[in-house]
Amino acid sequence: MYHNSKNVPFYAYGFGYISHTPAILKKFKVDETSYSVFVIDSFFKNKDEILKSLSFESQDIVLFLDANADEITTDLVDVFTNHVLKQKKILPSVVVGMGGGSALDMAKAISNLLTNGGKAEDYQGWDLVKKPGVPKVGIPTLSGTGAEATRTCVMMNLKKNLKLGMNSEHTIYDQIILDPELTKTVPRDQYFYTGMDTYIHCLESLAGRHRHPIGDSFSRESMVLCQEVFLSEDMMSDDARGNMMVASYLGGCAIANSYVGLVHPFSAGLSVVLGTHHCLANCIVLNALEEFYPTEFKEFQAMVKKQKINIPSGICKDLSPDQLERLFLSTIIHEKPLSNALGPNFKDILTKEKVISIFKRM
Ligand code: ZN
């Protein structure tokens, strides 16, 4: 058994680069019957200026995804894929995902399903995707999740109560377009929380026991960029948004070779039991983990203060014993990251009382 890593083969970076999308998509066209499928965050539905720069052609299929409404389910992936298959006799030449992590992940999943057949849930797991998908192009419009660079697409399977992606080398984008102009209109809080996903992932992996020299290098550089962004006067200046887009990409590259630590398991608990959004939940958790990450905790506090961001507190103060029990169970189940952070005997440290006392600090 050996570990092999793959990154996105082509990336185009620059302010205003979205205008090069038509030229980039042309590379994938075979003949005049070729068409593209676009999966776009519904935030852009009435942003005519941006949509115009994508230069849709009459045969293209454009799908909007309401990322605010729900997380991606395996059923929704099937619905989107079947919509494409019903409309056309041939497969698209390219699938384009444009938006935050959800739209990017949805496009990856559709691309894999179109060539591999079956249902989305058949591919939840590691290396179950057998054939390359339809070529895919990703255009992130929010920085931090790293979805533009990772080899998975997170999907919730409601029947099996299973949150797991199609973890495969075929899930990686063939081309991404990084245009920091696109993150200009993101609300400040959301920009901060999402950017922190990268920072937190990198601090967790650098503090962990499982190490990889290339993963570590990606993580270190990504953290330096996050520090520059969030300790600067304006985290949303042009420079800062450019740096943040690079940090997100590098953080995503790091994920292939690294494990998270304590923040993500606790954050998953908040998401499962209280429905807290992933990126916000991470920030709430880091705020309560000073004893495990003292240096990063201090730096995080400085960033929150500098950018005048509100991190909710007191969210676990009035929970029922049943809810606290579920928080404990949905945290402690994440054995890999927890043993990465604390070693194989992590349960000696993270007793039920300890876990609940940490949640009560949030
Ligand atoms: Zn994360």
Q: Key terms for this structure?
A:
six-stranded parallel beta sheet; globular; 14 helices; binds zinc ion; about 45% helix; about 350 residues; two-stranded parallel ribbon; single chain; alpha/beta
Describe the structure in brief:
This protein has 362 residues and is α/β, with parallel strands linked by helices.
Radius of gyration: 20 Å
Largest sheet: 6 strands, parallel
Instruction: Count every beta strand, where a strand is a DSSP E run of 2 or more residues.
Output: 10
**Shape by Cα distribution:** globular
Structural class: alpha/beta
The ligands found in this model are: zinc ion
Succession of helices and strands: EHEHEHEHEEEEEEHHHHHHHHHH
**Measured distance between first and last alpha carbons:** 41 Å
Secondary structure tally, helices: 14
Strand order in the largest sheet? 1-10-6-4-2-3
Uncertain runs with pLDDT below 50, 5 residues or more? Answer: none
Average of per-residue pLDDT values: 95
Indicate the proportion of strand residues. Answer: 5-15%
Q: Please bin the fraction of helical residues.
A: 40-55%
